[in-house]
Amino acid sequence: MSRINIVTTATATSEQQELLMAIQAKLGMVPNFLKVFANSPSALRAFLGLHSIAGEGSLDAQTRERIALAVAQKNSCEYCVSAHTAIGRGTGLDYAEMEANRNGTSNNTKAAVIVRFAQSLVEHQGEVTTSELVEMRDAGYSESDIVEVITHVGMTLLTTILGKAARLEIDFPKVSL
Question: What CA dihedral angle connects 95, 143, 133 and 152, to 10 degrees?
Answer without folding.
Answer: -40
